[in-house]
């Protein structure tokens, strides 16, 4: 981001003046702290770590708890803008430790912002449990600051962490409660935006179509994101895909096709292109147009592959940028030891190369594992079995259905049958069928319907299979975890 001369240059001059030995009086230092805060609040990046570090050093000696916290918070923001995320996170924690919550004038606003920044870092690192912890703290201190809007925002953001943790019920609960809270403080547009997007998608997956359609209507009418022709503002085009999914759920493939094609036409980034292609594939699956199914399935696969490559390249570039920044600072401080620098540089390059290779390989393995589970969950026989389990009156698999299920799993995971059927403890047909259904992620209550038995019976079998196949004592859910690993190579964290 371009810096404004009337803010950036004075800050640099102040940093130079301070580092030349002038400590300044308290008034000048507080003015400088406020100026830096204003710069950050105006949306400008903080790239002058010398200034921020000087302010921290001063207020550590001469400031109160709030001033120390503010200075370290801004230093953390500076490190974050410089892509030094581990250092930023450490500094944010140091800033939070400065707070004295026993004092009546404790700056809860800054404390809330600190934990919000920590949550943001954990979000980018895909650490949902840590993100959730920080969002809860940020929300708590926002309430303490009597900043109702900020508190509700932080509460609403917790749904994203629950989404990472595959807890759809918690996602919907947080989204719907957030929307109610936004309405109570006179923010219907924020309420409508909260109920849009992933909320609608989650409801469609649960089969709650009436509520999904109602939230879609609210989103379009009250979010403030649409013009008179129902065109959404740039950057939110993914909603066209969600709109198409609503029409698919109500068996209106022609209308769905219109919105998916609009997604492809208006949403130019790869995320929208993938969504539009996937949607059209689903439309032509309903219409049973095999040529178009193959066309859009191939396009979606190619786009997914490109998206993965771009994502990995972006991660590597961020990592490299952070490394380069620290590396050049290191060289500047060690000019008198050039021979030692050359040796250390070689070690660092090898280390970074090793880390990048490990990181890229680990992400690649995770991608391959996810692709296997996706194929198992979305295969035609899996979807047919899931539909049978939800049918009323009930439908049950034929002998050919069971053959197709076995063929699917044993083709995708050739070792599956041998792992399940040890010589000493071969499985019964019922046990093996439950193993197959569990591996393609059919839910336990759905398994019970397909096998025409009560859920408790399925639970008991899964628990006994944990001991019989894996040699472990534990619950039925632990059996699901263990069988889910078959075919997926374990990657150490």
Identify the notable features of this structure and list them briefly.
mainly alpha; disordered N terminus
Structural write-up:
The chain is mainly α and 493 residues long. Among the domains are: 225-309; 380-484, no CATH class. 76% of the residues lie in helices and 0% in strands. It has 24 helices and no strands. The protein has helices at 5-19, 26-41, 49-62, 65-81, 85-98, 108-124, 128-144, 148-164, 168-184, 188-195, 198-206, 209-222, 238-249, 253-266, 270-287, 290-333, 338-378, 380-390, 399-412, 416-420, 429-439, 444-450, 455-470, 476-484.
Alpha-carbon distance between the termini?
35 Å
Beta strand count: 0
Number of helices: 24
What is the N-to-C order of secondary-structure elements (H for helix, E for strand)?
HHHHHHHHHHHHHHHHHHHHHHHH
Regions with little confidence, pLDDT below 50 for 5+ residues: 1-13, 15-23, 305-332
What's the overall geometry? Answer: globular
Q: What is the beta-strand fraction?
A: under 5%
Task: Walk me through the topology.
Layout lengths: L4 H15 L6 H16 L7 H14 L2 H17 L3 H14 L9 H17 L3 H17 L3 H17 L3 H17 L3 H8 L2 H9 L2 H14 L15 H12 L3 H14 L3 H18 L2 H44 L4 H41 L1 H11 L8 H14 L3 H5 L8 H11 L4 H7 L4 H16 L5 H9 L9
């Amino acid at each position: 981001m371009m810096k404004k001369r009337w803010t950036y240059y004075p800050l640099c001059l102040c940093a130079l003046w301070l580092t030349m030995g002038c400590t300044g009086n308290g008034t000048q230092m507080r003015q400088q702290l406020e100026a830096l805060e204003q710069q950050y609040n105006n949306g400008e990046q903080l790239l002058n770590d010398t200034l921020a570090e000087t302010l921290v050093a001063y207020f550590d000696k001469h400031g109160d708890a709030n001033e120390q916290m503010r200075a370290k918070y801004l230093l953390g923001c500076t490190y974050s803008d410089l892509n030094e995320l581990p250092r930023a996170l450490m500094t944010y924690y140091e800033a939070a430790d400065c707070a004295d919550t026993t004092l009546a004038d404790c700056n809860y606003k800054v404390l809330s912002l600190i934990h919000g920044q920590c949550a943001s870092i954990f979000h980018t690192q895909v650490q949902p449990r840590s993100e959730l912890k920080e969002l809860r703290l940020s929300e708590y201190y926002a309430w303490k600051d009597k900043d109702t809007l900020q508190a509700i925002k932080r509460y609403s953001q917790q749904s994203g962490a629950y989404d990472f943790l595959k807890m759809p019920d918690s996602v919907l609960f947080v989204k719907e409660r957030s929307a109610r809270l936004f309405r109570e403080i006179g923010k219907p547009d924020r309420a409508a935006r909260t109920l849009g997007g992933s909320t609608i998608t989650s409801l469609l997956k649960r089969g709650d179509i009436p509520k999904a359609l109602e939230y879609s209507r609210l989103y379009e009418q009250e979010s403030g994101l649409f013009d008179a022709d129902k065109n959404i503002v740039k950057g939110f085009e993914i909603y066209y895909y969600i709109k198409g999914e609503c029409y698919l759920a109500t068996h209106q493939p022609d209308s769905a096709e219109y919105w998916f094609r609009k997604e492809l036409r208006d949403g130019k980034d790869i995320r929208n292109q993938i969504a539009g292609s996937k949607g059209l594939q689903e439309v032509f699956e309903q219409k049973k147009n095999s040529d178009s199914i193959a066309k859009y399935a191939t396009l979606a696969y190619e786009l997914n592959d490109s998206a993965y490559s771009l994502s990995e390249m972006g991660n590597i570039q961020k990592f490299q940028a952070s490394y380069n920044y620290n590396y050049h600072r290191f060289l500047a401080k060690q000019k008198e030891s050039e021979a030692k620098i050359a040796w250390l540089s070689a070690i660092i390059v090898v280390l970074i190369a090793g880390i990048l290779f490990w990181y890229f390989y680990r992400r690649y393995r995770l991608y391959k594992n996810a692709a296997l589970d996706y194929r198992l969950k979305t295969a035609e026989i899996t979807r047919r079995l899931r539909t049978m389990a939800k049918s009323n009156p009930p439908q049950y698999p034929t002998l050919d259905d069971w053959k197709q299920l076995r063929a699917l799993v044993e083709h995708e995971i050739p070792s599956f049958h041998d792992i399940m059927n040890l010589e000493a403890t071969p499985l019964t047909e019922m046990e093996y069928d439950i193993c197959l259904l569990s591996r393609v992620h059919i839910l336990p209550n759905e398994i019970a319907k397909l096998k025409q038995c009560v859920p408790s019976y399925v639970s008991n079998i899964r628990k006994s299979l944990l001991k019989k196949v894996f040699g472990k004592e534990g619950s039925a859910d632990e059996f699901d975890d263990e069988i889910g690993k078959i075919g997926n190579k374990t990657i150490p964290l």
